[in-house]
Amino acid sequence: MPDPTQSSTSTMTLKQVLNRLKAHPAVDGILLVGTTDSDKLTPVSDYDILIVLSESPVPLQVGITYIDHRLTDLLFATVNEVDRIITEKQQFKPFAYLLSVSRWLQTGKIVFDRTGRLQRAKDTLQNSNLALPTSEYDSYGICFGINFDYLHNRRMAESDDPVYQTALDLRFCFTLNNLFWGYFSLRGILWEGEKKAVRYLEIHDPEFMRLIRQCLAETERKVKFQLLENIAEIVTAPAGGLWAGKPMAIATKDEGNQKIEDIEMASMFWEQLIGIEPMQEK
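Request: output the structure for the sequence above.
Response:
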């Protein structure tokens, strides 16, 4: 695995870096996002820069560096990707990476636009809702993951084995993170990162945010598990809540064209594999 090189821009100002990028013929546009180059910049703020390229020797996607001693996120896009956003307009249904580009285009500040492409894309996205509705199939997948974690956490919480207890403490970390993200996904709310998510909840659901903070601060394992259970019930409420009893559930491979009926067929096939006839509706 190659080690990263030390940042060559760490002692350069943002303006100096932008001027160098503007001078390169392969750079078609530059856009700054968030607090970058704004009066809201704080000592701990980072820089976020979208760079649109007309050509590149390798397919760049994301990068991380330092500019003016600030941690800096780099997002790269091609002119073809931006053109796709422009031409497909409201019918544009981007995959995850292009969705990130679209969000940055929608909210960012254009500082260089060699061909006017960025402004056209920004105009296209001005009234677009990038929080695409979650399909029934995708909602099931999210709930499957939440319930899968919950059932295993509950199993491990019943053990007095120190190894199980430490493993459970580790699982709590990603469980809470998945629940936090799942709250937004199951409600079709645009995810724009943790900071904006926290600010959104402080305004729109302060009680849920209070539970999240309480769970983060809790050190007693049993109490933390109970808090996570309560949070999971809230998160999954739009999809029916946590599964009751001793459930049997199957998730299918996401190959881009799945439907909720595939889940039902998968469960029926499992019953056939173990020699149980599916229950007939009366």
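The mean pLDDT is 89.
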